[in-house]
Structures are given as C-alpha cells and as structure tokens.
Amino acid sequence: MFKKVLTIILLATFVFQASPVMAGFGISPPYVKSDKLTPGIHYEQTITLLRSAADEDLEASIVINAPEISSWITIKEGNNFDLPKGKLQVPMVVVVDVPKDAELDNYKGNINIKITPKGDQQSGVAIALGARVEIDLTVSNQTVFNFKIEKINLVDFEKLSFPWDMKIFSWFFYRLRAVMTIENLGNSEIAPTRVNLEVTDISKKNVLASVDDKSFDKIAPFSTGDVEASFPIDLEPGQYWAKIKVYKDNDILRAEDRTFTIYNPGELGDRAPDFGIWPWLLLALYVFILLIILAVLIKLRSWRALFWAISVILIPFKFIFSLIGSSFSDVKVRFWKWMARKASKYQDSDREK
C-alpha cells in the first residue's frame, strides 16, 4: 500500500513539474507523398508543426529514416530548428531531389520529429513530444501535365504620352497585363495554352476588343508562381470590363470578369509601369534601321529611291510646316484687316470734326 501511494506521489510531482511542452502538438499533413515523381525531378512539400500554446521557445530535432532514399531528402530549415515563442504554427519544408539515375520504384520511410524546450531555459522535468511523418514516394516515367489557377489580377495602366503613343511604340508598351498565380500539380513545366481577353465598355453592351496571348513563362514542376499575359489595347482613358479566359488545350480552365482603369498620362504617379530604357532602345533601333536603308540606297546610287524615301520621311514635317504657314497667313490677313478698321475709324472721326 505504501509503495502504491509513493508511486502516485512521484507521478503527480513529475506531471506538475513537467514542461509546458506538454501542451498539444501535432503536424499537418502527417506524410510526404507523391506518385508523380520522375528521375531528376525536384519536389517540395510543406509540413506544418502545430501547438496549442506558444508560451516558450522550443526546438525541433529531425531524424530521417529512409535508408534507400535518405540522400534524396533534406529539410530546408535544417535538422534542428526553432519553434519561436508566440508562433503556434511553424512550417517545415521537406525537399526531395530524385537522382537522374534513380530506379523506377516505390520508396517508403519516415521522418521523426522531436520537440524539446530550447537550451536550458526550462526548469524542472521536461517532457519531449514527437511526431512521425510517413514517406511514400513513387518514381515512374509517366509525364503529368496539370495545374490550377489560384487567382488573376488585372494591372491598371495609363495612356502613353508623345512620342510613345505612336503605333510603332504603343504596340510594345501600351498593354493590359493579367497576372495569374498558377500552381503546377504535375511533374513537367507548364503554362496555359492561351489566354483570351474580351474588353467591353462599363455597361457591358459593346465589345471593344478581343485579343489572345499564347506566349508565357513556364512554372516548374510541383511549384507555384506568377505568369503574366499582356495584350495590346488601343483604348482611351476610362474604366472598362474585361472577361478573361484561361485555356488548357481546348478547355477553359478558368474564366473571370474583372474591371480595369486606363488613366491619363501622369495620373498613376509612382504606380505607373516603369519601362526603363526599353522605349529609347526601340527608338535607337528604328533610327539604326533607317540609317542602314539610307546607306544601302546611297551605295547602290539609287538616288531616285533615296529622294523618294527622304520625301516620304519628310511628309509629316511638310504637313506641320504647311499648317504653320497657313496659320501665319491667316494671322497676317487678320492683322491687316484690323489695321484697316482702325484707319477707317480715325478717318470718320476727322470728317466729323
């Protein structure tokens, strides 16, 4: 009887002096699993470490038990990392790098996680908690193309100022951009087949433009990233509706209606797209091409063609000069009419006297 009482007292003392690590601890998900791996692929999966109270700093110690594939697996945070005070959830990223010469097979194992108070900060008896992550990986030669669109954002922009609003420049820079966040669920690089954009006025009654983009950066396997589609738009400042359709082959993977705004030059301020030196480089390219054409014409002694080319180039300037000349003539005529009226007025005044 005395031994039973003593045992109960010792257990009670042990429990009441135990570390707050006794607070609930768990992981989600409790596995690293994929059946879409191929030789040479890179795969990551996040395991979230959860606790019900975060009153102190804890430390996680990781041991990987997977003899056949232990060299494939690493923990991005390292085999020892902290669970800081105040954080109830801490991510742990398991990285799998399958060798290019890996055999096609199914591989299993586990990852043991041990949680203890950090350093010597804990007084009394500390009880370590733990969890086990099951590993189930299949390496095959099957190619999987699959992805999902997490969100789509349209980026407002502003009308270009002269000379960048000319067609030779605006086609490259006056564009509506749609930024799509895509999660690649397969084991190959992917991108949408095409993205269609249909623009209507704010009342949705009149279709103003319908354009496609088929050229995108690709997202790496088992990862999430942003893909940008851009569309040349010839619209005046204002607010518009856009229907965006994202295609995978011939299927519409996602369709959304969004509004966007085109602002007048300068209205966006710091939020305006920054094109850097690209417009100036494009201008330099056009000038360079023109000089090459002129040099070829001169070398071939095609004077008639050269004069024709120069006359074509000077057409806008001739138009501007003719406008200035006509304006000057009009001003001159009005001036002399005004002088005639003044002179007539003074003559009438002298006759009355």
Short description:
It contains four helices and 17 strands. The protein has 353 residues and is α+β, with helices and mostly antiparallel strands.
From the 3D structure, determine the CATH topology of the largest domain: Immunoglobulin-like
Number of strands: 17
How much helical structure, as a percent, in the residues?
25-40%
Strand content: 35-45%
**SS-based class:** alpha+beta
Helix count, per DSSP?
A: 4
| CATH level 1 class label of the largest domain | Mainly Beta
- Give the rounded overall mean pLDDT: 80
Shape: elongated
**Cα distance spanning the termini:** 147 Å
| CATH homologous superfamily identity of the largest domain | Immunoglobulins
Strand line-up across the major sheet: 2-9-8-4-6
Give the second-level CATH assignment, the architecture of the largest domain.
Answer: Sandwich
**Alpha carbon gyration radius:** 37 Å
| Sheet of most strands | 5 strands, mixed
Domain count: the total is 3
Q: What is the string of helix and strand elements?
A: HEEEEEEEEEEEHEEEEEEHH
List segments where confidence is low: pLDDT < 50 over at least 5 consecutive residues. Answer: 1-22, 121-125
Question: Can you characterise this structure?
Answer:
This protein is an alpha+beta fold. It has three domains: 125 residues, Sandwich (Immunoglobulin-like), CATH 2.60.40; 128 residues, Immunoglobulins (Immunoglobulin-like); 50 residues. It has four helices and 17 strands. The strands form four sheets. Strands 2-9-8-4-6 form a five-stranded mixed beta sheet, with no helix packed on it. It has a five-stranded mixed beta sheet with strand order 11-17-16-13-14, with no helix packed on it. β16 and β17 form a beta hairpin. The longest helix has 50 residues.
